[in-house]
Amino acid sequence: MSPVEAVLFDRDGTLVHDVPYNGDPERVRPVDGAREALDLLRAHGIRTGVVTNQSGVARGLLTEADVRAVDQRIDDLLGPFDVWAVCPHGPDDGCPCRKPRPGMILWALGRIRTRPADAVVIGDIGADVAAARRAGARGILVPNQVTRPEEITAAEHVAPDLLTAVRAVLDGPPKGRVLADERPIENAYATGAPAAPADAAVWRAPAAGDTPGRPR
Known about the structure:
Elements: E1 6-9, H1 34-43, E2 47-53, H2 64-78, E3 83-87, H3 103-111, E4 119-123, H4 126-135, E5 138-141, H5 149-154, H6 162-171, E6 201-204
Parallel strand pairs: 1-2, 1-4, 2-3, 3-6, 4-5
């Protein structure tokens, strides 16, 4: 049985393909293996959540209603998630919830009553794993085309895709384990995932330059 009780995911570039400042639910496309990875976690009784920077709100490119609509579409396709946390602030706002700061992670884990030491955060950029480390959780980096080489070098745990990352969570990787050479799970689709608890939460900080492709 995995020692991990909860896995929190970054949203854009991790669970779904990254469409910069997306406010259109019709443009949501899960990444390959996302549904299988999440069902596998839920079949093992592991809670799941999303922690996402959405600076498009602070920049005036999105409304909070836009973000909620996209989040709902993701929940329809990949949920139910036990907790959602969204930071609408910009990179210069000094917000304690915005990754790489740990505020969203700590809040989300508090809502689902999980200690950081019993949680994993999976994301595609250095800010995701840095926030996990600052919160006291383990981070796994799943790189894509926007992940910087130095972020991959600095990450303690790296996986080539979500399914491999989830297998590592279930196996409980020791510190220092590098996952980039592991093979993805095959035929890992699991059914019978439990429904979200009645108090599944959504948190949004009070509304208040990233490079293109990294607007979070």
